[in-house]
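A favour between colleagues. Tell me how you read the following sequence-structure pair.

===
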Amino acid sequence: MNTTPSAPPISLSRFYLLGIIFSLLSVAALIQIIRLQSDARAQELPKIGEALYNYETRTLYPERGEIFDRWGNLLAGNVEVYEVGVALDEVQRARSAESIARTLSEILENPGYAEIKLAAETPYQKGKAEFVTIADFVPAQKIRVLEDKIKTAKENRTPLNLTGLYWSAHPMRYYPENDLASNVLGFVNFLKRPENVAGCQENGDWCGGHLGVEEYYDNLLAGTPIQVRLPKDPRKIDNLPPIPPGSSLILTIDREIQHAIEKIADEARETSGAEAVTIIVANPRNGEILGMTSTPRYNLNRYWTYPEIIDIPTFNRAISQVYEPGSVFKVLTMAGGLDSGVVTPESTFLDVGSYVVGGIPLHNWEYTVWGMQDMTGCMQHSINACLAWVADQMGPTRFYQYLEAFGIGRRTGIDLAYEAVFPLRRPGDTNWHEVDLGTNSFGQGVSVTPIQMVAAISAVANEGKIMAPHIVKAYIRNGQQIEVSPKLMTAPIKAETARTLSEMLANALVNEASPAVVPGYRLAGKTGTASIPTAQGYTSPLTNASFVGWGPVDDPRFIVYIWMEKPAASPWASVIAAPVFHDVAEQVITILRIPPDEVRQQMKQP
């Protein structure tokens, strides 16, 4: 009889052992999870995950705010351009690289056929090489040509094999007036799109505004970027979140005045042979800059060429270049003399051709002698000796107090990038000498920018008050226009002094029959012919010719400053710069529709 052997008894100790092992493994796994979560290196895990799953955190940049002149004319805006690229997996499956290269090369200026074909044949690698950009900043009209080409081929039943070819729109900075106000606007480095350049926010050389308004107001114009998680493959991006655009700016610039002074500056440079011409037109009542230009200018839509033409110090000479202004500076000296009471318009000075300050004789230009003159005559004939005497009567302390009150030696704070300044030497400084009191009185040995002179002398045209010069009139944010309020900087002289000096300078222009005079309008003004210092002293035969003028005298609506560097036709500001002022004033009067004095007086009568 066969019997079946019985099964061996089950050992419970084995189950216990396995239970302990799995429990220990669970505890170890839990400890590892906690450790990873608390480890600083765990912060890198999401990035690794994004790479594995073809997602990335991307910064999206708003559309840049636009820039308008005071009347709403567009000076800087955005135009739609396209990025064109290929999805490598689709191209490889459809074998469309040849057709894409042939079609695009017929439409795009660059790249060419060989380069496009090489890019389209890039081997597809999931997560590494999926999409290749062929061209960027492609004009919309070229995309229309491409779309028409595809449509025509389809209608003719000979469709092009463009599988895997994609294009998407994005904005590009655009300047519709090309070089108009280029020295004021600056530019945006639009060929370096910030979203395509690593470290853009940390490296200002790669993105944003450069020079002028574009740089000074870059944060406002650029708006606030946002970060979102998007697929690396642009084909997989369905919708982007809305991004509020940057703020738009309304400038104080008048496009018509700007256009007029640029034309006048170009003509003046050509006829005079000057190295450069700078013109500023401002409203002395509120500090608004109505026009500002310096030569040369350049096409902002080809901004990358500007280093070939100009550098930063000469990008906008009106604010970034200092120079010794010469006799236009006498306006400030005479203002201080009248305001302090050391002279009156009737005070006389016997000119013998020179005046000694600090033991050194200071001579008139070309050693002229004018004899007995009142203060109006001193300004009319621009007598160096007389103004040195006025400064000497004031004394160093009071003279330099007035210069400081006029803002000499300090930036005006105008809202443009790269405003320059040159320190004012004062008594007590190691490099100041007694003779400087005399030379500074007629604009020698002191350096300024044209905008400093406009601000300082505007006090004479504005009842003794200096309004802060500014270029932005308002900005538009979230659909609301916010006005920029004019700011009073200082009041260096009394209103009575300002009116008295304006009358003196108006009489001086009429008495000398200056070419600056505009018939029918009483204007005040002063020439400035300045020697140019060299390492050996004032040995250069070249000069800087300047003119400052404002009007109408009884109700000033504008102040104009002209600076012509090293004119070849004549060294004299009265010959070179005064006629330029006449042309500018005539244009400004016409554009601002200022009636002649006689008509305005009649309009005031009841």
In short: The chain has two domains: 79-174, 255-303+313-604. Confidence is low (pLDDT under 50) at residues 196-206.
